[in-house]
Amino acid sequence: MYSIPLYRPPSEARSLIIQVTEGCSHNKCRFCYMYKCKQFRLKSDDEIKEHINELKAYYKDPDRIFLADGNVLCLKTDKIISLLKFVKAEFPSVQRISSYSGPLDLIRKSDDELRLIREHGLELLYLGVESGSYKVLSMMEKGVNQLEMIEAGQKAVRAGFKLSCMIISGLGGEELMNEHAIESAKVISAINPHYFSLLRLVVEEESELAEDVRKGRFKLLSPVGILDENIIMLENMELTDCIFRANHVSNYLNQSGILNKDKDVLVERLKKFRDSNSFIPMGNDRL
Ligand code: SF4
Q1: Which tens digit of pLDDT belongs to each residue from 205-220?
Q2: Residue 143 to residue 123: CA distance in whole angstroms
Q3: What is the pLDDT of residue 206?
Q4: Is the Cα dihedral 76, 77, 82, 87 positive or negative?
Q5: Residue ID of nearest Cα to ligand 1 atom 4
Q6: What is the pLDDT of residue 2?
Q7: Which one of 8, 177, 284, 287 has the fewest CB atoms closer than 10 angstroms to its CB?
Q8: Could you read off the pLDDT of 38-86 as tens digits, one per residue?
Q9: Is residue 102 lining ligand 1, measured as CB closer than 6 Å?
Q10: Are 253 and 229 in contact (CB under 8 A)?
C-alpha cells in the first residue's frame, strides 16, 4: 500500500497518509537520511487513484489527511488542484489537508498559484527551515539561502496557508552555534509562522553528516551548548501569536507556549533547567 519508509510530522500522528510522490526531489541535505534509499518519483494519476481506493477500505471517515512524501508542492498546480478535488470527494469527512513543503517549490509557484491551491483545500504546510544562517544552510546543502528561505515562508503565509516551521537545534555545531541561534531567530521572525517547532539534531548513521562527524569536520554541540543555543534563539525571536513547541522526543526539555507572549517564561525555564543539578544530559547523538 505504501512505499517505505514513510514519514509524517509528529502532529499528523492520527492523520490518514496519502502517498502522492515518493522520496524528496532535493534529497541532498547532509543531516537528512529520510529518503536516501528512495529514488524520487511522481506517481501517475492512476496510481494515486488506486492507492486512495485501497486506503478507503481501511479508513472510512478521516478528519485529517497528510499528503506524502517529501514535497508534494513540486507537482504542477493543476495536478495538485485535481488531486485535492478528488481527495475531498472521496473523503468528504476531511477537515484538514496538510503536507510538507520544500522552499524551492514555494518559490517557484506564483502567489496566485499558491492561493488557488490553498482555496482548493490544502490548509497546513510544514516547512523545514532547519537554520536561518547562510553558512549553515550552505554547509548542510539545503539548496536555498537565508533570503530564499524567508521568501518561501512569507509566500506561504501570504497565500493563506497555516505554516509550521522547524529549526534543528545544534545544526551549526560548535563552530556556528551563536550564528545558527541568532540567524534562525531572524528568519523565523521574518516569516512569523503560525507554528514554530524546535527539534534537536540527532545524527543518523545513514546521513552524510555522520561522516563529517567521524572525520572531525563537524563538531557536535554539547548538551549544555544546545540549551545555551536554545536560550539565545528564543531571546532573539520576535513573533506574534506563534504556537511554539519543543516537545519532540529529541528535545532535552519539553516546552510549549505562545511567542512572544511566553518568551520570558520559556527562557527562564531553559536557564533553570540548564543550571539545575538534576540535569542529566542524554548524550550528543546516536553515533
Ligand atoms: S531535509 Fe527535507 S529537503 Fe532536505 S533532503 Fe530531507 S526531506 Fe529533502
Answers
A1: 989 999 999 999 999 9
A2: 25
A3: 85
A4: positive
A5: 29
A6: 93
A7: 287
A8: 999 999 999 999 999 999 999 989 999 999 999 899 999 999 999 999 9
A9: yes
A10: no
* Nearest atom, ligand 1, residue 69 CA: 7
Q: Which residues contact 167 (CB under 8 A, 6 or more apart)?
A: 129, 130, 131, 132, 184, 188, 196, 197, 198, 199, 233
pLDDT digits (tens, 9 = 90+) for 125-142: 999 999 999 999 999 999
Taking the domains of the chain in order of start, what are their residue ranges? 10-275
Phi-psi region of 162 (alpha: psi -120 to 50; beta: other; left: phi over 0): beta
d(CA 170, CA 220) in angstroms, rounded, equals 7
Ligand 1 center to 62 CA (angstroms): 27
| DSSP codes of every residue in the chain | --PSS----GGGTTSEEEE-EES-SS---TT--TTTTS--EEPPHHHHHHHHHHHHTT-SS-SEEEEESS-GGGS-HHHHHHHHHHHHHH-TT--EEEEEE-HHHHHHS-HHHHHHHHHTTEEEEEEEEE---HHHHHHTT-SS-HHHHHHHHHHHHHTT-EEEEEEEETTTTTTTHHHHHHHHHHHHHHH--SEEEEEE----TTSHHHHHHHTTSSPPPPHHHHHHHHHHHHHT---SSEEEEE-STT-SS-EEEEETTTHHHHHHHHHHHHH-TT-----S---
| Ligand 1 lined by 73 (C-beta under 6 Å) | no
Which grid cell sits at 38? 528512495
Ligand 1 centre from 128 Cα, in Å?
A: 8
